[in-house]
Design goal:
519 residues; two-stranded antiparallel ribbon; 20 helices
Length: 519
């Protein structure tokens, strides 16, 4: 693993002042020696995590939520699974971010403010889980030491998962003892205060981070729930998180990042700028690429959930068409997964207003939705019953998850507060709790739907964990072709740390499973 130039990367943010809108200014003096502080470097890392779109885009495809329009030549790399270790290199970027987070952790312990040693640990756990979910064994105990170890060994993925819980425990201890002070609030644009998120203030920031840490624990723990012999460990850790005074994220609060996006190239919300519009409001060329799948629409329509369908997608041609089509279901044409022709961008549905609406370039980027948390709690209660000391029932958490999905997609605001209740009392399997014989499958289905457009990597990871929903094969492959279970270690790591990469044995992306993927 290559030495990361943390200070230089963090230096890009030295122009940040107390006003949030300056966090995206990147002009520096080339004649001055780069330096940074824990708060600046933490801000840089948090911004880069939120702006890393690649894994979530890939996850949207491989979980069956998105495909591509045939305005572009079909990507055989993505849809025929013809990839190697030069494709999908998210490794280098994430380890760069981890170096920044470690710099913040080390600096916060010596120079302060100590608060950022807590927040950086939470995001360290967040990023390391992503790396394990993508690659399995990765450098951990010997990583992030700079020139002191340029060839770190790889650690066992299960052991990393267990240690991430300990990292989050340490973060919680630090955050309790070191609240955010107003002078540093501008560096925490996750919970220190964001534009248009009124409940976030410096005074509440440490509590929110602790709630995020506990919620992230739920993600880490439930991911292991199908592994034989893990129940007692998982139950114990869930109960420990539930017993904290702070608990989990309250209803209505998602984990988001917003450094103060501006109507300027390179300073817009990254999702908006990639698949939506430029600073002048013009449609980006890549906006013609991703498309909702036939399978996604069929699941929504099967339960009469056309309310969310119209928030997850725009009608054919998109909102920027010369004559935008009315929002009626017949005007929404999804695309079969992996089809190579016949579905041009102008005649198919676009990614919708839940994420993309012209002029709304300053929306925050989502790190974790509250809906995801509620479904994690629902699964914990359904699996472990009274063994977990969670106050709600599996049904109440499940229904909260559906309502939170309707909230974040804008469905409730668009159609009225009764829309989620309509779905939850529809009598439909996998929608109405009481009408669903397999409660876990109902949780998994609604979670899969709730992750659409927000957390594609989580959707793919959950798809690998549960094998549900049963999505159709890509039309770019044979019906019986195997699907990827993970990624290759990248060529860049093989070149710089070959002994330790090769020590992992032969990696087959179709058969070498991540440890929590039991079948």
């Amino acid at each position: 693993m290559k030495l990361k130039y943390i200070v230089v990367a963090a230096c890009l943010f030295l122009a940040f002042a107390s006003c949030k809108r300056t966090w995206l200014d990147v002009n520096t003096n080339p004649n001055s020696l780069p330096s940074s502080t824990p708060d600046f470097t933490f801000a840089a890392a948090a911004n880069r995590i939120a702006a890393t779109l690649g894994p979530n885009e890939l996850g949207q495809y491989w979980s069956g939520q998105w495909t591509q329009s045939s305005t572009y030549i079909l990507s055989s790399t993505i849809f025929a699974y013809q990839f190697n270790n030069t494709n999908f290199n998210y490794w280098d970027g994430y380890f760069d971010i981890l170096e920044d987070l470690q710099y913040s952790i080390d600096g916060a312990a010596t120079k302060g403010p100590a608060y950022f040693g807590g927040t950086a640990r939470v995001l360290k756990a967040y990023v390391y889980q992503i790396l394990v979910d993508l690659y399995g064994n990765v450098p951990y105990t010997e990583a992030l030491k700079g020139v002191n170890n340029l060839n770190p060994k790889f650690d066992d993925q299960k052991a990393i998962y267990e240690d991430l819980i300990k990292v989050l425990d340490t973060a919680i201890t630090i955050l309790r003892a070191n609240p955010l002070t107003a002078v540093y609030a501008g560096a925490d644009f996750v919970f220190g205060g964001q534009p248009n998120v009124q409940s976030l203030t410096p005074a509440t920031a440490a509590t929110k981070w602790i709630q995020f840490a506990n919620s992230l624990k739920m993600r880490i723990l439930i991911r292991q729930s199908r592994i034989p012999g893990r129940d007692s460990y998982i139950i114990s850790e869930i109960n420990k998180a539930a017993a904290t005074p702070e608990g989990f994220l309250p209803l209505g609060l998602d984990v988001t990042s917003n450094p103060g996006y501006l109507a300027s190239a390179g300073k817009l919300n990254p999702f908006y700028e990639t698949w939506g519009y430029n600073a002048a409001g013009g449609v980006q060329s890549l906006g013609r690429y991703p498309r909702p799948t036939v399978f996604l629409f069929s699941q929504l329509i099967s339960t009469n959930d056309t309310f969310r369908l119209k928030r997850l997608a725009w009608p054919n041609g998109g909102e920027a068409a010369a004559s935008p089509l009315p929002e009626i279901v017949s005007n929404y044409t999804p695309v079969p997964f992996g089809v190579s022709s016949g579905y041009l961008s102008q005649s198919t549905a676009y990614i919708g207003p839940s994420q993309l609406k012209r002029g709304e370039f300053a929306r925050p980027m989502v790190l974790m939705t509250n809906a995801e948390l509620q479904f994690l709690l629902a699964e914990a209660k359904q699996r472990y019953g009274a063994s977990v000391t969670l106050p709600g029932t599996a049904q109440s958490y499940y229904e909260n998850g559906v309502r939170e999905s309707f909230r974040i997609t804008g469905t409730t605001a668009a159609y009225g507060a009764a829309t989620a209740t309509t779905l939850l009392t529809s009598g439909k399997d996998l929608a109405d709790w009481n009408a669903s014989p397999d409660k876990l499958k109902a949780i998994w289905m609604q979670k899969w739907l709730a992750l659409t457009n927000y957390s594609g990597l989580e959707a793919w990871s959950e798809y690998r964990r549960t094998n549900f929903p049963v999505t159709p094969p890509s039309l770019a492959t044979s019906p019986t072709a195997p699907r990827p279970l993970r990624l290759f270690y990248p060529q860049s790591e093989l070149a710089s740390n070959s002994v330790n990469v090769l020590a992992q044995g032969t990696i087959d992306v179709f058969t070498t499973r991540i440890f929590w993927d039991v079948d």
